[in-house]
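In this supplementary section we document a worked example of the pipeline. Step one takes a protein sequence of length 326 as its only input; no multiple sequence alignment statistics are reported here. Step two produces a three-dimensional model, which step three serialises into structure tokens for compact storage. The input and output of this example are shown verbatim.
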Amino acid sequence: MLAGACAHAAAARHQTGHFYGLGPAGSRLMRRFFVAFAGLAGLLVSLAPGAVPAAGLTNREILMHCSGCDMAGMDLHGQNLSGIRFEGTNLRGANLQGANLRNAIFEGTNLDNSDMRRADLRNARFEGTSLRGTHFDGAQLDGAMFEGVNLSDGVLSGLSDGAARSMLNRCEGCNLANVSLAGHDLHGVRLEGANMRGMDLHGANLDGAQLEGVNLDGAHLQSANFHSAELLGSNLRNSDARNANFQNAVVCSDDTTTINDHGARSVIVGKTDCVELGGTDLHGANFTGARHCVWLGDGTQPRCKPATAQMLQQYGHANLSGAIGL
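The serialised model returned by step three reads:
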């Protein structure tokens, strides 16, 4: 029972000690309240799809006040759960097929092996959520945001290019280690700070992708398209980037420090930093038009100039043997 699970979670948090500074009598009174509420709630609602609890309560209303609930294996398919915040909730193995989860927030939630096929997840937010073995086939993912989420256990398998692109369009700090997206069209994805160690991206299209600070150590990048991508602070050490396209990509930048002195603003440009390419195979890689850009922090477009072989060698430790365009 959903209400019983939620009430039990609340009561369990106050089994010992005093309740928020109340004396022993107050604590006993509050514990009796939680036990009574759990018993009453258990009579109000069951989780059969479409069931409406007594006393006018709905599954949706109870979920809106259910933090840390254990809902493992529950059947919520087809239900309207739009805008619900699932905080610390256990939804492992839950059936959410076709559910309306638009604008929902999953924070610290366990969704391992859950079924979200054909669910409406537009503008939903997943933060620190576990998604091992979760199925998203046919789900609507436009505008969904994934932050600090582990996508390394088959979550992206079977998704169309459009669905995979939607999932990765706002996926900062995600774990994609050893995932294969070879040949996929991933243009414009935003993966800042993502762990992409050992990924297979050979032949993938990453045109215009935001890849600042990503870890692509040991990745398979043969013939991948990084045209106009931003690779500042990224690690491509020991990767295979033969015949990769880095044309017009931002591969180097300078540190900047902004000083405001009585309304006078000035920017000090510091040392140069380039994408790390030590041990990377760059035979046939094309760096024509690759850029060195500096952001001055004033809302204007960055100041860019051509990146040079010397920059990539000195600051990115690149072996440019066989590379072209520099």
